Amino acid sequence: MTDEQTRLGELREEIDQLDQKIMELISARAKCAQEVASVKMTSNSGQDVFFYRPEREAQVLRRIKEQNPGPLSGEEMARLFREIMSACLALEKPMHIAFLGPIGTFTQAAALKHFGHSVVSVPLPAIDAVFREVESGAAHYGVVPVENSTEGMINHTLDMFMSSPLKICGEVQLRIHHHLLVSPANKDQEITRIYSHQQSFAQCRQWLDTHRYGIERVTVSSNAEAARRAAEEPGTAAIAGDMAAELYGLEIVANSIEDRPDNTTRFLIIGREEVPASGHDKSSILVSMRNKPGALYQLLEPFHRHGLSLTRIETRPSPSGTWAYVFYIDFEGHVEDEQVRKVLADVEDEAVELKRLGSYPIGVL
Ligand SMILES: C=C(O[C@@H]1C=C(C(=O)O)C=C[C@H]1O)C(=O)O
Fold this sequence. Notes:
α11 (about 295-305) packs antiparallel against α12 (about 340-350). Helices cover about 40% and strands about 25% of the residues. By secondary structure, it is of the alpha/beta class. A hairpin with a 3-residue loop joins β3 (about 140-150) and β4 (about 150-155). Strands 1, 2, 3, 4, 5 and 11 form a six-stranded mixed sheet that branches. Strands 8-7-9-6-10 form a five-stranded mixed sheet. The protein has helices at about 5-45, 55-65, 75-90, 105-115, 125-135, 155-165, 200-205, 205-210, 225-230, 240-245, 295-305, 340-350; strands at about 95-100, 120-125, 140-150, 150-155, 165-175, 180, 195, 215-220, 235-240, 250-255, 265-270, 280-290, 310-315, 325-330, 350-360. The chain folds into three domains: about 25-35 and about 50-175, 3-Layer(aba) Sandwich (D-Maltodextrin-Binding Protein, domain 2), CATH 3.40.190.10; about 180-260, 3-Layer(aba) Sandwich (D-Maltodextrin-Binding Protein, domain 2), CATH 3.40.190.10; about 275-360, ACT domain (Alpha-Beta Plaits), CATH 3.30.70. The ligand C=C(O[C@@H]1C=C(C(=O)O)C=C[C@H]1O)C(=O)O binds next to α1, α2 and α3. One of its GO terms (cellular component) is cytoplasm.
């Protein structure tokens, strides 16, 4: 045996021993989580038991990121723990997560990033169907896209909150990389048509105008549907992400063709319960104001006076009348915070209506 072989043998021996310890520790952790479940059941007899605790999971992931000694990055370590927690929670109760489908969409990728892979993910054909599935109790939580850094707000999601009783329980951001994809069987054919979702076409507009000018662009209901069609129809391509490419066995012709390298989509987690404070939270509200001079100033002034940071303000037409508006506002803080309570009380004095959509942990992953 050479020196190199001897050294490799020793290192592999060490890795095997470490793996054994990791396995024992993960099993001990899983037993603890099971114990937590039985405590929750006995202390909550007869009432709804909330096995999934978003605020606690956010705290665990934040601590892991902060205390991670390296050489793995904090993000990487948190992702590993995300999966460990997901598996532990599945022992307590397997969660059903509705998402904007079909399978292979970025929304599914966001759902798995947020909840880990030990959940049952349920694809639904439209954003309102995801809301209905959670409202009816058929799914524990839902995941819907809410804004993209290149293309702006997903208005359909915002408008759903006007009528839905659901709460926002979390947020997750996903870097969106689009590829031009073809079926390996049709690789040598000339492409005469490209399928994609309207949002993805918009996020790749400049690239398409420069590199595939004049080729017909056909909008379909999702990237995954685009990939499915490209897999079947000769002479076509799709713009979609890695998950859809893998699912339909497509090959990448051009990689990461989004116009902005930081192209990111933010998704919301919707559920039926309010989430207690995690220590680093955000809140969302819908406010309709009287249509009078200074209305927007009056709405924003309390945030300034109490030093609360706004992270987003969007205006949507009110369903109650022509030229009336509803403001969708995100800000830092939790409704349990004293400062937030004061601001909301002031806003409520001036507003026609104030709807609290929820306070939730700022996305960790
Ligand atoms: C174990 C618990 O239940 C679930 C599992 C968690 C975990 O594995 O760390 C954390 C929060 C809950 O979603 C808990 O509430 O502490």
